[in-house]
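Example protein
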Amino acid sequence: MIRVDVLKEAVIAAPCDRVAPYAADPAHAPEWYANISSADWRTPPPVTVGSRVAFVARFLGRRLAYTYEITVYEPGRRMVMRTKEDLFPMETTYTWEPYGQASDHTRMTLRNRGEPSGFVSLGAGLMAAAMRRAQNKDLAALKALLER
């Protein structure tokens, strides 16, 4: 099966205890994800393992609606979300770690991976390239928001 696996990272001039809670809160996703227009809780906040959030996004010119479930949550360190949408099950992982001599910066990684099926698998290469571009924009937007 064709697999899509895109990993990007950014160093943000703000400490982990500021970056991680902001990035992990789905309510903030439309503020820094260029393609996400809404995020609606399907379970009561805050984020915890088992939390579910419905997102609406535009990707490659199409409207996408999907629900992520938080499967791993280590506050301030790592969060993993999965969706089981039929044509493109996806997993998104965030990690955060202190960076710099005074640990006053954060190194954040953003990884999206999945296994498209059916006709969607034909465009896996195009999808991966578009994800790389989107992740670069998203992390740059998050960096700009948190470095103010």
About this structure: The beta strands are 4-12, 36-41, 52-59, 62-74, 78-83, 90-99, 105-114. DSSP finds three helices and seven strands in the chain. The chain has one domain: 4-146.
